[in-house]
Amino acid sequence: MTTALIVDDDAFMRSLTVQLLRRLDIHDCVEVEDGQAALDTLVETNPQLVMIDLNMPGMDGLALLRHLSAALGEFAVILFSGEDRRVLRTAEQLAVALRVPVLGTLSKPPSLDQLEPLVAKLAGVLGRAKPQGAPGKTLTADEIAEGLDAGHLTLAYQPQVETVAGRVRGVEALARWDHPTRGLIGPWAFIPVAEREGLINKLTRQVLRQAIAQAADWQRRGLDLVMAANVTIEDLSDLAFGDLVVDLLDEFHLEPSRLMLEVTESRIMADVTGPMEILSRLRMRGIGLAIDDFGTGASSMEQLGRLPFTELKVDRQFVTRSHEDSETRALLRASLAIARDLGLIPLAEGVETEQEWMMVASLGCELVQGYLISPPLLAPRFEAWLPTWKGLSGDTVSAH
Length: 400
What we know:
By secondary structure, the chain is an alpha/beta fold.
């Protein structure tokens, strides 16, 4: 049975929303009047659907979204407001950026015809709404330092697929923490702490070692996959970093072209001069370089043109609902045009529906990554998944 939490300071609007939901066979409805009340009741009610008004006294809908991004539970949200469509769209993009599963937006007063298709998407979203190890408590600096020495850091791999051929081009290595009592924990529980406490360089080096070792093992077994791994701006400010990467490639006998290093746009664009030497040296070695989360920073064509990137990863906020939102589609098209103009291979992140796949493919995006294809998988599960991948056509498609 689905439980809905309606967050709105207007009692009449809450009552109307409850009536509409009941017509859609959602009878367990909880009403609260602001964001703080929603948080206070969240654990007790454990809703699968949260409907949020944006403009409320006290904690408004935007602040509530920020808190929901760290909340336990499996739910998706619908945003509704009397504000104009642009405000609603911006709020939706905020939810996407915060990794809060969002079904869509509604203008007030909502109608049954508008609400029904959004509610219909709920079941499909809930299965992938929260990545494994949703955050409850972050790890301490001591736990991270001790855990790195004890081998608690592990990697999950999310496939990256060609839109035209449907073949698996490679994977992105994503950090996970194998906690002895809490199980597998996502990066939000340890990456921010590691960055704050000066442990991120040690963590990144462990990620690279594991990722390169795994890619080399797959290469020996005939799996021709590109291994993408994230590096930090701190790594790219260390003159010894380039040699470290090359030494790891030599140690595990991995072809440099099988490695793709990703760096977040917003971090590198704050200072392009510092990393320029290291990025250039890595590229001269044949290592691929991707600018990650493109669209979240403040890049200019001039800045991008100064750095030797080979791939541009379009942030998921420009992919989600691009097939039905003209403004999102325009931003997606512009991002892909920048990639083409600079000679970069474009990859769309966060593809979760066939409609989103078809949209990015129709606009010329060469690679996609997202839950439509697969969630991040530990290596044994990825190896079991790979021969089952059938593409969107239903025909079995393997790696190169």
